[in-house]
Amino acid sequence: MLNGKSVLLGISGGIAAYKAAELVRLLVKDGASVHVVMTANAQQFIAPLTFQALTGNPVGTDLFNLEYESQIGHIHLARAADLVILAPATANLIAKIAAGIADDYLTTILLATTVPILVCPAMNVKMYENRITQRNLASLREFNTHLLEPEVGELACKEEGAGRLIDPSVIVETARRLLTPASLEGKRILVSAGPTWEPFDPVRFISNPSSGKMGYALASVAYRRAAEVYLVAGPSSLPPPHGVHFERVTTAHEMRDVIMGHAPQMDVIVMAAAVGDYRPIAVAPQKLKKLQDEVNVTLVKNPDILGHLGASRGVSGRPILIGFAAETENLIENATAKLIQKNLDFIVANNLTQAGSGFGCDTNQVKIIDREGIVTELPPLTKEEVAGRVFDRIEALLHITEP
Ligand code: C5P
Q1: Cα–Cα dist 125/252, whole Å
Q2: What CA–CA distance (Å, rounded) separates 390 from 307?
Q3: How far is the CA of 310 from the centre of ligand 1 (A)?
Q4: 275, 301, 332, 344: which to mutate for ligand 1, most atoms within 8 A of CB?
Q5: Is any atom of ligand 1 closer than 6 Å to the C-beta of 277?
Q6: 188-401: same fold as 6-178?
Q7: Rounded to whole angstroms, how far apart are CA atoms 115 and 123?
Q8: For the chain, what are the domain ranges?
Q9: What is the residue with the minimal CA distance to atom 21 of ligand 1?
Q10: Is the model's pTM score more than 0.90?
Q11: 195 CB less than 6 Å from ligand 1?
């Protein structure tokens, strides 16, 4: 997702400097080309060689290193980057930036760059809460910087409080957001994900193997394109994605209630959840005993959330409604019938019997079918790539309805 992007990582001297190695690894894995610049104090905590090995690029350490300066040059670095990340950013570095001081390699670049700067502070809690630091952070916010607040927890000095460097995975996700065009800015988008659990006694339920990956990927992609995202998820072991409003539900009824509550405010609803079509008619108050050889559980139909949304939307055509159809036979016919019956804008159909498609996989091979009956066959893609294609189509629909 950061393919072709150039990230300049500034590391200042705090104990969290060791976490910058993991951050670099994640940035490089995501496709970014990374140049590291370290303050003199940072080099006391971790050696520049670590970053040279991880990035494959020389590390900037000294403004007066003639060889490095002639090879790369601080003004070139300041211009060539798409994004600057400061992690960890110490109180001292933050103070220098706020005052416009340029007395070493890193601060000189920061004064010369015009690209966005993502500041990730890490320090002792008292230093962080100090009114001078807070004043400096407030003045950074006025300029071209984005701030990722530190986490609250146990600090290296054994004190408890705000000051831990935010998780590197959150820094990478924020970098993706800052480097993705804000094509869904101002749009409210609801995504549903995961399976539902339909209980028949207090410890047992009927469900399906949906992992939630497709819905979570949709939510993350919409967040990166600057939408305000509401993710309503059935039981899934995935951690909630960064930057979205997250609501956990268990049953189809709960999912319906949460989605219906949000629906009037949404521009777009994407139903990627594998909602259970049926639920047991009754839930036993106690765990069922193993007394009989056969047990019958009567199932009744669950509310069709998407069908209800489609039936109740007016002539405005809002919200835009997208469904998913997972089929084991007659893919196009069945998916098209659902598109019409549920009054959708398009449906994403996938064949559960195809390898590399459907439940639990990281990849998906889908067909997008629209109201005109046009079928667009996508190649095998990661679920994040499928999510990107789905939102490309949604953006086209938003442009048609909003001249
Ligand atoms: O009819 P079928 O369950 O195959 O339709 C799939 C689509 O309908 C999915 O987008 C799914 O999220 C949605 N759905 C729903 N409520 C149900 C069942 C499915 O919203 N009870």
Answers
A1: 44
A2: 20
A3: 12
A4: 275
A5: yes
A6: yes
A7: 25
A8: 6-178, 188-401
A9: 304
A10: yes
A11: no
Closest-CA residue, ligand 1 atom 6, reads 325
361 is known as an active-site residue: no
**CATH superfamily label, 6-178:** Flavin prenyltransferase-like (3.40.50.1950)
In DSSP terms, which residues pair with 84 in a beta bridge? 8, 117
For ligand 1, say whether the CB of 244 is within 6 Å of any of its atoms: no
Measure Cα distances from 179 to 5, 108, 176, 227, 379 in Å: 8, 23, 5, 14, 25
Centroid of ligand 1 to alpha carbon of 220 (angstroms): 21
For residue 215, the CA-to-ligand 1 centroid distance in Å is 13
* Pocket of ligand 1 contains residue 219 by CB under 6 Å: no
Q: Is the CB of 271 under 6 A from ligand 1?
A: yes
Into which CATH architecture does domain 188-401 fall? Answer: 3-Layer(aba) Sandwich (3.40)
133 is written with which tokens? Answer: 């630091």
pLDDT, tens digit, 9 for 90 and up, residues 15-44: 999 999 999 999 999 999 999 999 999 999
Q: Whose CA is nearest to atom 4 of ligand 1?
A: 325
Beta strand 245-248 with 268-271: parallel, antiparallel or unpaired? unpaired
Rounded to whole angstroms, how far apart are CA atoms 294 and 328?
29
Q: Please, is 373 exposed, middle or buried when counting C-beta atoms within 10 Å of its C-beta (0-12, 13-18, 19+)?
A: exposed
From first to last of the 403 residues of the chain, give the pLDDT tens digit: 899 999 999 999 999 999 999 999 999 999 999 999 999 999 999 999 999 999 999 999 987 777 777 777 777 888 889 999 999 999 999 999 999 999 999 999 999 999 999 999 999 999 999 999 999 999 999 887 999 999 998 888 888 888 999 999 999 999 999 999 999 999 999 999 999 999 999 999 999 999 999 999 999 999 999 999 999 999 999 999 999 999 999 999 999 999 999 999 999 999 999 999 999 999 999 998 888 888 888 999 999 999 999 999 877 888 999 999 998 899 999 999 999 999 999 999 998 888 777 677 888 899 999 999 999 999 999 999 999 999 999 999 998 766 5
Ligand 1 centre from 238 Cα, in Å?
Answer: 21
Q: How remote is the CA of residue 342 from the centroid of ligand 1, in Å?
A: 9
User: Exactly one of 157, 300, 337, 355 is catalytic; which is it?
Assistant: 157
